[in-house]
């Protein structure tokens, strides 16, 4: 149906301008119910979007600042692949102090989602020790030696407690900060995994100890290589993953 679905947010709902940053989705600034919002149109299934929107509602109820979904006139959280969310004001993190605030926000996310069910169709990093596919991951498309290195990095995470991870919080464009709050946006890659994957931040703002930081950094590089394979970024990230 495409952007015609925006009409389900009212006769006056309108697209204003495209927003940059999204790769898998078409993202626009929109106006619904007389307020500025963000519309994201993609190809995710209804079960996938139900997981993501329920997560955002949960985090909002628990006091986190997130792009909470805005309901259609019929009370739905999404329609025909389109989600309309609250617009988040603010700018990206710039200083080490900013990134420390991001780390605190991520730890709150992890605390609030222990025991959360996995996103439909996804695999965690440790699931991929035995599985070969999961949503955007297809290990059969990667060089065999690269898969071995990635799995060696993920094997170091076995036995850790899992929770929801944002998936890409070290990208400044996925954070909107003001003086009194930190908002994480673009939850398209969120899923259940080991929390340390979220904590590989600039200048080690999460204060991971040397050994923990090394393990997390290797596992994170392996994950990003697998998710993004086979673009230049993925090839570069795979090169960072050591054989042991």
From TrEMBL:
Pfam families in the record: APH (PF01636)
InterPro entries assigned to the protein according to its UniProt record, in alphabetical order: Aminoglycoside_PTrfase, Kinase-like_dom_sf
UniProt-listed SUPFAM superfamilies: Protein kinase-like (PK-like) (SSF56112)
UniProt GO molecular function: kinase activity
This protein's UniProt keywords: Kinase, Transferase
Coiled-coil regions listed in the entry: none
Domain Aminoglycoside phosphotransferase: 16-200
Protein name: Ser/Thr protein kinase RdoA (MazF antagonist)
Organism field: Chelatococcus asaccharovorans
Taxonomic placement: Bacteria, Pseudomonadati, Pseudomonadota, Alphaproteobacteria, Hyphomicrobiales
């Amino acid at each position: 149906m495409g952007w015609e679905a925006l009409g389900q947010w009212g006769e006056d709902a309108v697209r204003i301008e495209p927003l940059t940053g999204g790769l898998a989705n078409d993202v626009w600034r929109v106006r619904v119910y007389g307020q500025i919002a963000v519309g994201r149109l993609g190809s995710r299934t209804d079960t996938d979007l139900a997981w993501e929107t329920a997560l955002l509602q949960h985090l909002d109820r628990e006091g986190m600042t997130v792009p909470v979904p805005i309901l259609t006139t019929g009370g739905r959280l999404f329609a025909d692949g389109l989600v309309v969310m609250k617009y988040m004001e603010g700018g990206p993190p710039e200083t080490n102090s900013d990134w420390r605030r991001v780390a605190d926000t991520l730890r709150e996310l992890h605390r609030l989602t222990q025991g959360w069910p996995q996103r439909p169709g996804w695999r965690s990093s440790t699931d991929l020790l035995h599985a070969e596919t999961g949503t955007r991951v297809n290990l059969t498309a990667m060089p065999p030696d690269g898969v071995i290195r990635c799995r060696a990095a993920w094997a170091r995470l076995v036995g850790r407690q899992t929770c929801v991870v944002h998936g890409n919080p070290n990208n400044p464009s996925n954070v909107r900060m003001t003086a009194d709050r930190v908002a994480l946006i673009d939850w398209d890659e969120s899923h259940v995994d080991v929390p340390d994957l979220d904590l590989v931040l600039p200048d080690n703002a999460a204060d991971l100890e040397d050994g923990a930081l090394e393990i997390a950094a290797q596992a994170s590089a392996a994950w990003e290589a697998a998710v993004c394979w086979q673009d230049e970024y993925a090839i570069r990230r795979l090169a960072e993953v050591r054989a042991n």
